[in-house]
Inverse folding.
């Protein structure tokens, strides 16, 4: 069973590849680090073709030995460290990811995955490799992982230089005011707004929706549903596209989860479903149940969700508190969740039919056709690494199916109609430190699903973020304590 969908025009053989590149002199390649940052370079066409016909090419492992600002981790980690000399990994070119970068003279571009040079095993923390394991797990059960991602992001009339000169304060929003779904606001900066959509299509990223969201200068872009690996590729490439196109228009887009304390944050909502071997949505009901719903549903909210879908949902809810760093990987991301429902950012283990107040929104008939039945995971922010977030959701869901887990809590509407029961709700970790401790504890569901190698490496990178944050002195502290303490 195919677990991913190739980009249009992707070469199927070396002859195809050579024909594809016949007029090119260079190729751009990139892999992804644990923070979701693209790390890559240009290669001459000859070197690229040589790597494509072999196992790959050498790529410095330090991209797994330092953080997003190229600061080496304070704790030595197994993949890349002083003892092994930050040795090379093997970067294997994925020909199915072929694109051309339209704003960069149509240079050809390919993504790579990283492998151990001695064992040829996937690097345990390589984001594409981690997601590949998740989709392979589903494929072993004759299921294909399907997903869509929505990004909300602030946009500023700034450049990297001007933002740094201002010390990232007093940045000028692209447009003023709170104007979600505004047709008027998009008349401003029209070239940039349209370029995001149009360049995405040229770059092989299909867009379902593109509009303003509430907040000064905020946009939302929904990427079209596709296979999970292709979706993660599209999501990471959309961020690259937005930032690149922004540079050409004097705009700085930011996918930071919570830039402003008094405004809603930026979400990275994820829609998921599974297809069976015949291409049928396994979350949808059988023909016999479609008119009146499933009689044995755990709750009314899941009446139009299949039994497999209910097990998947139970698996996600069961493991959600243990994988939070994979969904919310930054210090700032948890500040987006502080306001909870008031800021459209659920911070508890909750679910509900068509409920944007819940962590997991069930989207099913009667509001959509049966074939569109899916779950929307509303916890991640726009700063997520889409590979890790999708991996967590699908691995937890497949665990729920394998163990035939049942829902143990009622839908969120129960607590909204009976506030006295809110004390029953399980809250999600309130900080990256708390979330990382939960993920790394012995016998966590994260360790069960992803293994110790991944959890120890990724967890240590999050501990590094926490240490930096704990050592930082913020403007808030200075303003609050400098004079009066």
């Amino acid at each position: 069973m195919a677990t991913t969908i190739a980009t249009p025009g992707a070469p199927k053989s070396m002859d195809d590849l050579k024909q594809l590149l016949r007029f090119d002199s260079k190729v751009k390649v990139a892999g992804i680090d644990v923070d979701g940052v693209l790390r890559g370079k240009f290669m001459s066409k000859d070197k690229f073709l040589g790597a494509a016909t072999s196992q790959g090419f050498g790529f410095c492992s330090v991209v797994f030995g330092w953080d997003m600002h190229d600061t080496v981790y304070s704790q030595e980690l197994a993949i890349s460290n002083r003892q092994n000399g930050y040795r090379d990994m093997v970067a294997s070119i994925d020909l199915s990811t072929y694109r051309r970068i339209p704003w960069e003279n149509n240079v050809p571009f390919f993504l790579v995955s990283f492998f151990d040079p001695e064992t040829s095993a996937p690097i345990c923390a390589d984001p594409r490799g981690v997601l590949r394991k998740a989709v392979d797990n589903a494929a072993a059960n004759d299921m294909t992982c399907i997903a869509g991602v929505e990004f909300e992001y602030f946009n500023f009339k700034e450049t990297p230089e001007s933002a740094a000169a201002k010390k990232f304060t007093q940045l000028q929003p692209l447009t003023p005011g709170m104007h979600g779904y505004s047709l008027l606001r998009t008349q401003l900066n029209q070239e940039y707004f349209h370029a995001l959509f149009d360049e995405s299509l040229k770059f092989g990223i299909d867009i379902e929706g593109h509009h303003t969201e509430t907040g000064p200068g905020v946009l939302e872009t929904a990427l079209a549903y596709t296979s999970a690996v292709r979706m993660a590729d599209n999501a990471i490439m959309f961020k690259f596209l937005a930032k690149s196109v922004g540079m050409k228009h004097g705009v700085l887009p930011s996918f930071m989860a919570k830039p402003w304390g008094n405004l809603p944050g930026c979400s990275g909502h994820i829609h998921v479903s599974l297809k069976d071997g015949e291409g049928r949505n396994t979350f949808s009901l059988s023909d016999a149940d479609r008119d009146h719903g499933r009689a044995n549903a755990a709750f009314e909210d899941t009446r139009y969700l299949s039994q497999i879908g209910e097990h998947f949902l139970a698996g996600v809810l069961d493991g959600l508190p243990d994988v939070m760093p994979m969904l919310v990987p930054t210090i700032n991301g948890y500040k987006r969740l502080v306001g909870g429902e008031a800021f459209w950012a659920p911070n508890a283990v909750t679910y509900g039919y068509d409920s944007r107040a819940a962590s997991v929104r069930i989207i099913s008939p009667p509001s959509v056709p049966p074939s569109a039945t899916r779950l929307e995971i509303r916890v991640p922010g726009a700063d997520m690494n889409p590979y890790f977030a999708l991996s967590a959701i699908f691995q937890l869901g497949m665990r729920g199916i394998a163990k035939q887990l049942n829902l143990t809590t009622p839908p969120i509407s129960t607590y909204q109609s009976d506030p006295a029961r809110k004390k029953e709700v399980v809250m999600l970790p309130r900080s990256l430190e708390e979330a990382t401790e939960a993920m790394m504890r012995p016998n966590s569901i994260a360790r069960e699903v992803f293994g110790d190698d991944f959890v120890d490496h990724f967890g240590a990178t999050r501990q590094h973020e926490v240490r930096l944050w704990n050592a930082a002195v913020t403007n808030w502290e200075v303003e609050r304590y400098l004079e009066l303490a």
In short: Residues 153 and 243 are 11 Å apart (CA to CA). The chain has 15 helices and 14 strands. The longest helix spans residues 228-248.
